[in-house]
Design goal:
The protein has helices at residues 2-9, 50-53, 67-74, 95-111, 125-135, 139-147, 151-160, 165-175, 179-200; strands at residues 14-21, 27-29, 81-86, 118-121. With 206 residues, it is α/β, with parallel strands linked by helices. A 4-stranded mixed sheet has the order 2-1-3-4. Helix 8 (165-175) packs antiparallel against helix 9.
Length: 206
């Protein structure tokens, strides 16, 4: 939680985080599927209960945070927005668990009335479809509120100036008009072209 607290302290306006599910169906914030790289534990996150995970050191005495802990932290900071990445993918025997994870995340977003403060995404297309079907109705308004610009302006800024209109058309054609999917494709394509320009222009990425 230390990084999230520091982000609020210095005035960051959006936090991105990755969400996984534990053995006892609790939502935790960790990028890797395994514990080895970022904690003093080993094995898969999903093979541990939340209580067991809380015993691990995630660096400098920090614990692996939960999604609820993050929501509790930011609920009194109404200008803070969140980019929630769903890391459980509906593949093979994990399909039911992945959709259950998606449902739990969306339920918690609604519980805290954060739907207008969150952008939700996944790097798995089927999960993106699921998110779009469940949260897609107000995605255009959400993008405008979170980014401060219309989706059309977002398209223009990232794609026309990079002279890649064919990539934009490709993203839209793949997503069949689903704004959640379009945004996801745009983010992926923007990262391919934009990060180097941000660095060379002297603009920071935290």
């Amino acid at each position: 939680m230390l990084a999230f607290k520091k982000a609020i302290e210095i005035g960051v306006d959006q936090i991105e985080t990755d969400i996984r599910i534990t053995k006892d169906n609790q939502l935790v914030l960790i990028h890797d599927a395994t514990l080895d790289r970022t904690t003093n534990g080993s094995g898969k996150v999903c093979d541990y209960t939340l209580e067991e995970l809380k015993q691990l050191d995630a660096g400098n005495g920090q614990q692996i945070p939960t999604l609820r802990e993050l929501f509790e932290l930011v609920k009194d900071h109404p200008t803070m927005t969140l980019d929630l990445e769903f890391k459980e993918y509906p593949i093979g025997d994990w399909e039911e668990k992945a959709y259950h994870t998606c449902d739990k995340i969306l339920e918690m977003v609604e519980e805290y009335q954060f739907s207008e403060r969150c952008v939700m995404n996944s790097f798995h297309q089927t999960a993106v479809n699921f998110i779009g079907q469940n949260m897609g109705a107000h995605q255009y308004d959400r993008i405008k509120k979170i980014f401060g610009i219309s989706f059309q302006t977002l398209q223009s800024h990232f794609f026309w100036k990079n002279r890649k209109p064919e990539l934009l058309r490709f993203a839209i054609s793949l997503s069949a008009g689903n704004i959640c999917q379009i945004l996801h494709y745009c983010i992926q394509l923007c990262l391919s072209f934009g990060l180097r320009k941000l660095h060379t222009s002297g603009r920071g990425i935290l």
